[in-house]
């Protein structure tokens, strides 16, 4: 059987599998076509600290560290990694990703010899599996359950369901984002959408705590999406979302959001800065804060008029967006993290891919905070601009 024939057979089997049976099907297919002796699907948890095996509850298989294991190395590097297994066998760890959104790792144990020759085929099958997992999550909780090593609060459950993903790639850009505390977030949020010509990005700094913060963010994000999908310009999107939030809360609650609409062909962008999220830019080895004209948060007053500003990203730029739960967090002695510490963190992570940067910065933030419990959500979004 040729490589192409094997791939078609595997793809057909996965596309016709019941949503909850994807792992069983990929195990059967890899055993029949490649002689695989064991197959495990590991899903990245919400905190991006461990890879959780997909299993029938109650989960009895131990999670795998993202930081210190071979499977974690495949996840971080987004490249297949081969290691030796007992009896001369080879274990292949394959990233399971969809358009840059990193879901987890497929670990396959093969008989002795030949593993390296099959990496291309196995990586393609892992990619098909990723697409099917995304589709299957509409109809089953199996993969969403596997992603959690702890119980989510209800507010966090609502927020994670609202997000587009944690990373995304296109020819012109790479995006990565992460929220902390992953299992108890309140109202911070990010959203993005791309077409053939444009990339729209929202970075939201929520107000309040718990369910109320999550409900406020859900209303604002869905109002922004509704306006965006109606084809409105970014300043009009802000105005309509402002009306929706004010109409419901009458000024009692409001929401800060930084909105950017990029032209993919030129890097030119329109920006609405409605509140507190900040942008820092790494260009030519230098980090600087990019300040925009501050406008009112969404929903603070009735019928606020928003105006878009001009901005341009250059090829090679790294743009890092943060909420106030990052730059305003206090250390053990009360000093705010601030732009200087952020600058050091951005410099220290400059060689990491965009999808890895938010997690690395938030890890440093946790160390800066010391043993204290986070009093606010912390959000980091990293955009690497390649240009066209």
UniProtKB/TrEMBL annotation:
Q: Which Pfam families match?
A: SpoIIE
Q: E.C. number, please?
A: 3.1.3.16
Q: Which UniProt keywords apply?
A: Hydrolase
InterPro entries per the UniProt record, alphabetical: Bact_Sigma-Reg, GAF-like_dom_sf, PPM-type-like_dom_sf, PPM-type_phosphatase-like_dom
Enzyme class, UniProt record, top EC level = hydrolase
**Which residue numbers delimit the PPM-type phosphatase domain?**
172-385
Q: Report the Gene3D superfamilies cross-referenced here.
A: 3.30.450.40, PPM-type phosphatase domain (3.60.40.10)
Q: Name one GO molecular function term.
A: protein serine/threonine phosphatase activity
What name goes with this protein?
PP2C family protein-serine/threonine phosphatase
């Amino acid at each position: 059987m040729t490589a192409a024939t094997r791939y078609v057979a595997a793809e057909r089997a996965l596309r016709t599998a019941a949503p909850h049976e994807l792992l069983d099907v990929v195990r059967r297919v890899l055993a029949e076509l490649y002689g695989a002796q064991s197959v495990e699907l590991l899903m990245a948890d919400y905190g991006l600290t461990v890879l959780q095996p997909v299993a029938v509850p109650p989960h009895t298989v131990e999670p795998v560290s993202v930081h210190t294991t071979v499977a974690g190395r495949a996840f971080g590097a987004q490249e297949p990694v081969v290691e030796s297994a007992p009896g001369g066998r080879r274990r292949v760890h394959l990233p399971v990703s969809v358009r840059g959104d990193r879901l987890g790792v497929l670990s396959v144990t093969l008989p002795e010899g030949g593993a390296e020759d099959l990496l291309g085929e196995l990586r393609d099958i892992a990619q098909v599996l990723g697409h099917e997992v995304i589709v299957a999550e509409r109809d089953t909780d199996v993969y969403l359950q596997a992603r959690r090593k702890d119980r989510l609060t209800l507010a966090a459950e609502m927020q994670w369901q609202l997000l587009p993903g944690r990373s995304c790639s296109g020819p012109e850009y790479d995006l990565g984002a992460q929220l902390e505390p992953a299992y108890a977030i309140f109202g911070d949020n990010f959203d993005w959408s791309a077409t053939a010509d444009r990339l729209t990005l929202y970075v939201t700094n929520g107000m309040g705590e718990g369910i109320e913060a999550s409900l406020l963010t859900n209303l604002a994000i869905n109002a922004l999406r509704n306006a965006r999908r109606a084809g409105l310009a970014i300043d009009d999107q802000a105005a309509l979302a402002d009306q929706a939030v004010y109409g419901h809360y009458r000024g009692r609650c409001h929401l800060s959001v930084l909105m950017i609409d990029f032209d993919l062909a030129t890097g030119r962008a329109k920006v609405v800065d409605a509140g507190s999220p900040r942008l820092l830019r790494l260009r030519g080895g230098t980090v600087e804060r990019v300040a925009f004209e501050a406008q009112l948060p969404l929903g603070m007053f009735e019928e606020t008029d928003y105006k878009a500003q001009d901005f341009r990203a250059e090829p090679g730029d790294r743009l890092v967006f943060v909420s106030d739960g990052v730059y305003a967090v206090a250390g053990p002695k009360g000093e705010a993290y601030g732009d200087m510490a952020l600058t050091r963190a951005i410099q220290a992570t400059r060689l990491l891919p965009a999808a890895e940067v938010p997690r690395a910065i938030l890890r440093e933030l946790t160390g800066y905070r010391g043993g204290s419990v986070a009093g606010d959500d912390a959000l980091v979004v990293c955009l690497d601009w390649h240009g066209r």
